[in-house]
Specification:
Layout: E1 3-4, E2 28-29, H1 68-80, H2 85-90, E3 93-98, H3 103-112, E4 117-118, E5 121-126, E6 130-137, E7 151-159, H4 168-179, H5 182-190, E8 199-205, E9 213-220, E10 235-236, E11 239-244, E12 249-255, E13 297-300, E14 303-306, E15 309-316, E16 320-329, E17 335-350, E18 362-364, H6 365-369, E19 386-387, E20 389-396, E21 402-423, E22 430-441, E23 446-454, E24 459-460, E25 470-474, E26 477-480, E27 482-492, E28 503-512, E29 525-531, E30 549-558, E31 564-571, E32 596-600, H7 623-626, E33 638-648, E34 658-669, H8 686-692, H9 696-705
Parallel strand pairs: 1-19
Antiparallel strand pairs: 2-4, 3-5, 5-6, 6-7, 8-9, 9-10, 9-11, 11-12, 13-14, 14-15, 15-16, 16-17, 17-18, 17-27, 20-21, 21-22, 23-34, 24-26, 25-26, 27-33, 28-29, 28-30, 30-31, 31-34, 32-33
C-alpha cells in the first residue's frame, strides 16, 4: 500500500464577495498569523497537479480550529488572572476549546465570506474546584508567548460538584502512585510479581463528583525487556484500590481475593514478525493508489470544496472531527445548505459481566477522556491511501502547555465501486459510472462510518472456572460481553438560508395493506408518514421490520413535483442496551434508551450526558432531561441525535487485536434534487481504463494458473 503526501502549490479562488456582519459581543475582528514556509502566502501559484490551496485572504473563518498560538495565549491569560503565585502554579488545564458563534452568524459568514473575526476561547481548568473561563483574544501572532499575549478574561465561573475529563498525565501519575504503594507491592508479590515495571494500570472513573477519584484496572506483562508485549493479556484481579487523583494518594485498599495470574499466552502479541514470535506472510504485493493529476478537492485553510460539495473541517478535544456548514452547489439553485454541524458527541461502552471489576467498565470516551485528545497521529502508519491532505490538531496539556497531534485528520478520495450502470438489451450499449467518495477520517449521500478495532478488555478466571458472561480466550483468560454505543449529533439546516428555521422531521414506516378490495393480489404495501410534532413524540427506535427511517424536510422549499425537499436518515444495524432500567450506568447515559432523539436547537446542548459526565451520578442532566421541555419541532432548527451500537460477543478471532468491524448510518437526499445528482458524472477516461489494465504477461500468467 502507498500513501502520497506532498508539499502542495496554491491556487486562487475567485468570486468571493465581501460582506460585513455584526459579531457577537464575545468576538472581535482580526487574526494575524505568522507566515511560515509551509503556510499559504497571499500570492496564488498555478500548478498542473497537487491539492489546490485557496489564497490566504479567504482562509480564516470563525469556525477554524484553534491554533497552537491561540491556545497558548488563552492559557497565559487565565494563568495571569490567578490571585497568587500558588494559585497560578496549581492551575491544571483540561481543555481549551473554541466558543463557537451562534449558527446565524456562521450561516452569514458562509453566505457572504465576510472578513474573519477571532472568536472567544473557553478554557476549562482543573485545580481544586472546576472552573470555566471565557477569554477574548484581540490579536494572536504565531510567535506570541508568555507575557506578550493579548487576551482578556470575559468571565469565570466555578462549577460545583463536577469533574472535567481525565488527562493522560493524571493516568500516568495514578499508575505511579499505585506502583509505589507498599500494600499493593506486597499483594503483587503474593501473585509472583516483584518487578513493578511489569505492572500496567488504567484508571476508571467513579460516581463521586465532589472528589477526583479513580479505580485502577491492573495488568501485568511477563517480560521486563519487551516493551511491545501485550500486557493486557494478564489482568490482575482481586485487588480493590481507590486513588485520589487530585492529591495522588491511595484512599482505599483491600486484597479481597487471590486470583492467580493467567499463564502467558503465546498468541498474545500482535506486532510484526519476529517481534511477536511469529512470521509475517510473504505473498502480499504492493498496492499503489495513483492520482497523476492530483485530487479533485480544493482546500482553503479548513474549507474544503469537492465536486459540488463544500464544508469546513473542525476539531475539538471532546468530539474530535467536526464538519461545519455542509452544503451542495446545485446549478442555478446555487449553494444549498444541508447541515450546520455534524459530529460524534459521545461513545459509551457498557459491559455485561456483573462481577467486579467488569460491571464498572462503562467508559464515556468523549466525556471522561476526549475523543479528540485521544486521536492518533497518522504520521507513523497512515490509515488512508492515495493523495492525502493532512490536518494537525492542537490541544492544551494538563499543565497548560500546547501539544500538537501531527497528521491527526486525513482527507482523501476513494474509488467506491459502481455509482450507476445500465445496459440497453436492444442496442447492447452500456453506460457505467464509477463512484468516488471523499473520506474525512478521524467519512460525503453523506455516509458516516465507524470502524471498531483494538484490544479486548479481559478478565482472569480461577483454574477450571467458566463464566457465561464472556468468551474464554485462553487458559484462565476470558473476554466479557459488552456493547459499543455512538451518539451522532446532526444540527440540520436542509435548504435553510441564514436566519431561516423551516425544518421538520417525519417518521416513515412501511405498512402492509390489509386483505380486501385494495389488495386483491395480497402483495400491496406502502410507506406511511408521521410528523414528529414535539420532542417527547420524537423519542424513536429503529424497526427493521417496517424499514423505519426519518426525513428532515424543509417546509417552504419544494422540488419539481411540488413535494418538500428533504434528507433521509437511513439507519444501519443497531441495538439497544442489554441492561435493566436500574443499571447504574444508565443514570448518566439515559440517552441510550432510544435510537433517535430530536430536539429544537439550543447552543449549549451539545453533549448528551451533559458537559461534565465524568464521575457524575446525577440523572437530571443531558439529553433525556432536555426533551422533557417538549419543545415544538414544527418549522424550527432541528437537531438529530442518532444513537447506534454494536453488541460484541468476543470471538477467538478477536484476539490479540480485533479486526475492524463496521457500523454507521447514511444521510441520503430524499426529494432534495429533481433527479439523480450523479447523472453528470463523466465516464471513466481512457487513461483510467489503461491504468487499470494488467500487463499482458501478468494476465496470461493469471489465466494459465486459473
Amino acid at each position: 500500500m502507498a500513501a502520497v503526501e506532498e508539499k502542495v502549490p496554491e491556487c486562487s479562488r475567485g468570486g468571493a464577495a465581501a460582506g460585513k456582519v455584526a459579531a457577537p459581543a464575545a468576538t472581535i475582528s482580526g487574526a494575524v498569523m505568522e507566515e511560515t514556509a509551509d503556510s499559504p502566502s497571499t500570492t496564488a501559484k498555478a500548478s498542473s497537479k497537487g491539492i489546490p490551496i485557496m489564497t490566504r485572504a479567504q482562509r480564516s473563518h470563525p469556525l477554524d480550529p484553534l491554533s497552537a498560538a491561540e491556545i497558548a495565549v488563552a492559557v497565559a491569560t487565565v494563568r495571569a488572572a490567578g490571585r497568587t503565585p500558588e494559585v497560578r502554579g496549581s492551575m491544571r488545564f483540561v481543555e481549551v476549546v473554541l466558543l463557537e458563534p451562534e449558527k446565524n452568524v456562521v450561516a452569514l459568514a458562509d453566505a457572504y465570506f465576510f472578513p474573519p473575526f477571532q472568536p472567544s476561547l473557553l478554557p476549562r481548568t482543573k485545580g481544586g474546584p472546576t472552573s470555566i473561563w471565557i477569554v477574548e483574544l484581540s490579536e494572536v501572532h504565531a510567535a506570541t508567548r508568555g507575557a506578550h499575549h493579548r487576551g482578556k478574561v470575559i468571565s469565570s465561573e466555578v462549577v460545583p460538584d463536577v469533574q472535567p475529563a481525565m488527562d493522560a498525565m493524571e493516568y500516568a501519575e495514578c499508575e505511579a502512585t499505585v506502583k509505589s504503594f507498599l500494600p499493593f507491592i506486597e499483594a503483587m508479590k503474593k501473585r509472583g510479581i516483584d518487578d513493578m515495571e511489569l505492572v500496567m494500570e488504567d484508571a476508571c472513573a467513579l460516581d463521586a463528583p465532589s472528589r477526583r477519584l479513580g479505580k485502577p484496572l491492573i495488568f501485568c506483562r511477563t517480560e521486563s525487556d519487551s516493551p511491545m508485549e501485550n500486557g493486557y493479556a494478564r489482568p490482575v484481579e482481586g485487588i480493590h484500590i481507590i486513588v485520589d487523583m487530585q492529591n495522588n494518594v491511595v484512599t482505599e485498599f483491600e486484597d479481597r481475593k487471590f486470583v492467580p495470574l493467567p499463564p502467558p499466552d503465546h498468541l498474545r502479541n500482535y506486532t510484526p514478525g519476529e517481534t511477536r514470535g511469529g512470521v509475517d506472510r510473504s505473498d502480499v504485493k504492493p498496492l499503489i493508489i495513483s492520482q497523476p493529476e492530483g485530487p479533485s478537492f480544493c482546500i482553503a485553510g479548513y474549507f474544503v470544496e469537492w465536486q459540488k460539495w463544500s464544508f469546513r473541517i473542525g476539531f475539538t478535544p471532546k468530539e474530535g472531527l467536526v464538519l461545519h456548514s455542509v452544503a451542495y452547489v446545485d446549478g442555478n439553485r446555487g449553494r444549498r445548505p444541508i447541515a450546520h454541524r455534524l459530529s460524534f458527541v459521545e461513545m459509551v461502552v457498557p459491559y455485561g459481566d456483573p462481577n467486579e471489576p467488569h460491571y464498572r467498565k462503562n467508559a464515556f470516551d468523549a466525556g471522561e477522556d476526549g475523543l479528540g485528545k485521544n486521536a492518533h497521529s497518522l504520521k507513523k502508519g497512515c490509515d488512508c491511501l492515495g493523495f492525502i491532505k493532512y490536518f494537525d490538531a492542537h490541544f492544551t496539556n494538563f499543565t497548560g502547555g500546547v501539544e500538537t497531534i501531527e497528521n491527526c485528520v486525513c482527507l482523501h478520495e476513494e474509488d467506491h465501486g459502481i455509482l450507476w450502470k445500465h445496459q440497453d438489451w436492444r442496442t447492447g450499449l452500456a453506460e457505467v459510472r464509477r463512484s468516488r467518495r471523499l473520506t474525512v477520517s478521524f467519512d460525503g449521500k453523506i455516509e458516516s462510518e465507524v470502524k471498531l478495532t483494538g484490544i479486548l478488555s479481559l478478565g482472569a478466571l480461577m483454574p477450571g472456572e467458566q463464566r457465561k458472561y464472556g468468551t474464554t480466550i485462553a487458559r484462565s483468560l476470558y473476554a466479557p460481553v459488552h456493547q459499543h454505543f455512538f451518539v451522532a449529533r446532526m444540527d440540520m439546516a436542509v435548504d435553510c438560508k441564514p436566519n431561516e428555521a423551516y425544518n421538520q422531521v417525519v417518521e416513515v414506516n412501511v405498512k402492509l395493506e390489509s386483505a380486501g378490495p385494495n389488495n386483491m393480489q395480497n402483495n400491496a404495501f406502502y410507506a406511511e408518514e408521521k410528523l414528529l410534532k414535539s420532542e417527547l413524540q420524537a423519542m424513536c427506535d429503529c424497526d427493521p421490520s417496517s424499514a423505519r427511517h426519518w426525513i428532515v424536510r424543509n417546509t417552504r422549499t419544494v422540488n419539481r413535483t411540488g413535494q418538500p425537499t428533504g434528507y433521509k436518515l437511513m439507519p444501519g444495524s443497531n441495538c439497544l442496551p442489554f441492561s435493566l432500567p436500574e443499571a447504574k450506568f444508565l443514570r448518566r447515559a439515559g440517552f441510550l434508551k432510544h435510537n433517535l432523539w430530536v430536539t429544537s436547537y439550543k447552543s449549549d446542548e451539545i453533549f448528551p450526558g451533559g458537559d461534565f459526565p465524568n464521575q457524575n451520578p446525577r440523572t437530571h442532566e443531558g439529553l433525556a432531561t432536555w426533551v422533557k421541555k417538549d419543545r415544538s419541532l414544527e418549522e424550527t432548527n432541528i437537531v438529530l441525535w442518532y444513537v447506534f451500537g454494536i453488541t460484541h460477543i468476543p470471538r477467538l478471532e478477536d484476539w490479540p487485536v480485533m479486526p475492524v468491524e463496521h457500523s454507521g448510518f447514511m444521510l441520503m437526499p430524499h426529494g432534495f434534487f429533481n433527479c439523480s445528482p450523479a447523472v453528470d458524472v463523466p465516464p471513466a477516461s481512457d487513461v483510467d481504463a489503461k491504468e487499470a489494465e494488467l500487463p499482458k504477461d501478468i494476465q496470461t500468467e493469471l489465466i494459465s494458473k486459473l
